[in-house]
Design goal:
267 residues, alpha/beta, Rossmann fold, eight-stranded mixed beta sheet, two-stranded antiparallel sheet, 12 strands, 20% strand, globular, NAD(P)-bd_dom_sf
Length: 267
């Protein structure tokens, strides 16, 4: 595999597992990391860093200049980035006065806007990014009843953030989009930071069911281990490793089949 991939959010979880899969297939994987030493004791990752196949680029995706530098650094050998994987995510914490909060409240949205504002214009890369099921009133109806409190209360702030992120990418892809986040998630004038709508056509949106730390069923059972659909699935969970399995073994392998689609993935 001669792919060059730039990952935002690759220090752990889905971005990490996706990166390892790609490295095993021979891809060059560039990671923008706020903590560039996070892989220092990771023996598996170290062999790819030593060989030059895994490239660490220090930086914070919340800073536009850092993201611009990541694109430039990743392509400084003359080989452009052909795939961008975005798995940035926050974890809500509980505040007695405010309930479940995330800092910043629009983490994914702000980081994605930086990615879209700085990505190459002459040959935009493939963009595959992670979101969640149950973000809107309509999709919330499809999730299992037992999970509705989790989605409606605990995950409300990060889900509003993901809705903002989706809205920004929908604009970039030229999609018709009706679901928008609450006021304050997308900053004022955000469209002015981007080219006109439709400048990034090579997009796949992955909406995952409730994420777990289970093993990859896909490695044993193949693609039938989980469901992938443009329709609401109503499933309970999906392991982070299986989302990585879908990204690398299906979405990127059969890009023409999935490009331009919003996909729900779950068991």
């Amino acid at each position: 595999m001669s792919q060059k991939v730039l990952i935002f959010g690759g220090s752990k979880n889905i971005g990490y597992y996706s990166g390892l899969r790609l490295l095993e297939k021979g891809a060059t994987v560039c990671y923008q990391l706020r903590r560039p030493n996070i892989f220092d004791n990771d023996e598996e990752m170290q062999k790819y860093i030593t060989s030059g196949k895994a490239i660490i680029i220090p930086g914070d995706a919340l800073k536009e200049d850092d993201v611009r530098r990541a694109w430039e650094k990743a392509a400084e050998d003359g080989v452009p980035v052909d795939t961008c994987i975005f798995t940035v995510g926050g974890y809500p914490s509980f505040s007695i006065t405010k309930g479940f909060v995330q800092d910043p409240h629009n983490l994914c949205t702000a980081c994605m806007l930086n990615v879209l504002a700085t990505m190459p214009r002459d040959a935009p890369p493939k963009l595959i990014f992670l979101s969640s099921v149950g973000l809107t009133k309509e999709t919330h109806k499809a999730i299992p009843f037992a999970l509705k409190p989790v989605y409606g209360v605990m995950l409300k702030v990060p889900h509003n953030d993901k809705l903002g992120m989706e809205t920004a990418v929908a604009y970039a892809a030229g999609w018709t989009w009706k679901d928008v986040p609450p006021e304050g998630v997308l900053p004022e004038g955000w469209r002015a930071r981007l080219p006109e709508s439709g400048f990034e056509k090579h997009v796949v949106l992955v909406r995952a069911a409730l994420l777990t730390d289970g093993k990859s069923k896909g490695d044993k059972e193949g693609n039938k281990a989980y469901r992938v659909s443009q329709e609401e699935l109503g499933g309970y969970t999906i392991s982070r490793r299986d989302i990585a399995h879908f990204i690398v073994e299906q979405a990127l392998q059969e890009w023409e089949k999935f490009e331009g689609k919003v996909l729900n993935v779950g068991y």
